Structure formats: C-alpha cells, structure tokens
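ping. complex inputs:
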Amino acid sequence: GAVVSQHPSWVICKSGTSVKIECRSLDFQATTMFWYRQFPKQSLMLMATSNEGSKATYEQGVEKDKFLINHASLTLSTLTVTSAHPEDSSFYICSLETGDSYEQYFGPGTRLTVT
Amino acid sequence: GENVEQHPSTLSVQEGDSAVIKCTYSDSASNYFPWYKQELGKRPQLIIDIRSNVGEKKDQRIAVTLNKTAKHFSLHITETQPEDSAVYFCAASSGGSNYKLTFGKGTLLTVNP
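pong. complex structure:
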C-alpha cells in the first residue's frame, strides 16, 4: 500500500485570496496523483491528473488557470485554488496509484471554506 | 467517457438484514470496479474490489458480483450492523495509463438497531 497525507486538513479563507493544498506520498514515489473535489452530500469528482515533471491533465469543465497543480517531485503534488470564491468551498481529496494494482490510496482530505 | 449510475441513493435496513447496492457502467473497456465506504468528513475507504476477469468476490460479510455483459456490478452486505451505516460509492476504471476512477453518486446506508 501507500500512505498519503494532506495539508492543511481544513482552511478558511476570504473570497479573492489563493489557497495551496499539499498532497504528500509518505512511502512511495508517485509519478501520478489525482485530485478530486467533493461537495456536501455529493460524490467525488475527478478534477485533474497530476503528472510528475509535466503539466497536469484537467477534466472537462475544470478551469486549469483557477486550479493550479504542481507535481514537482515524486512525493509532493500541490493544488492551488486561485481567487477563491464561496462556490469553491468543498472537500478536496488527493490520491495515488502505485502501479502494483489498480487500487488508489486516498489522502485524508482538505476542507476548504471560502467566506 | 465513463458514466457510472448507482442505485438506490438511500437505503435503510434493520440490523441483521442484508443490503444490496447496484451500479451500472457505460464503458466496456472498464476493467476494475472498487467499492468505497465513506464516513462523514473522512476519506473513502476501499472495502472490496473486483476485476473484470472475475464474476464474484467475497470477503466475510461483503461480496461483489460483476456482470460484464450487462455492464453492472453489485455490492452485497449480509448481517448488517449499525457500524455499517455510511455512504457507499461504487467506481469504475479502465486502467490504462492513468487508472482514473469514475464514481457513482453514492448510497447512504442506514442500519437501524
């Protein structure tokens, strides 16, 4: 398996500011990580696939200039929500897949509240 | 792209009864089907998964069945307990180069003592 951490676990920010969320693989070198968003009482929606050393692949409808993803090393991917608005308030979860199986290992999530 | 439908959206059972949640998928290339349990504010936890070369898999009180021809798969929980109460999500993946998952909309399972 793999152990995934996220930081912060929760954050409150004001509208118009930017927030960075970190996703770390503690015991595995991940070339690919995934970022999901989950609104209250809804399902997980894949936002983008983060690729180490290259540009992220965004899902249809996700603004790449608003949700900046940087996968600068094999153990760290970051998601920056730029110019946050209240509608960006959500639970953001990252995951990775080790290549040994199809199983994905999820981080604990980050609760973002934009006021 | 892949589309996963999940039913029912809510399910209430009495402790000790069985619970069944069903999902259908659209992409015939999908070959990996995990089920997750998610408690409020927590990360999804994998409870069981199945690959397309297998029709059924069981782990204690939990079982999953897959019908590739009909493109549907189901989660079966027997002898339900109050601690089984949570939201359950099915998902599908075609593997390939990035293993991305498409999730169903979830089922809120309530087990009444």
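The two ends of chain A are 37 Å apart (CA to CA).
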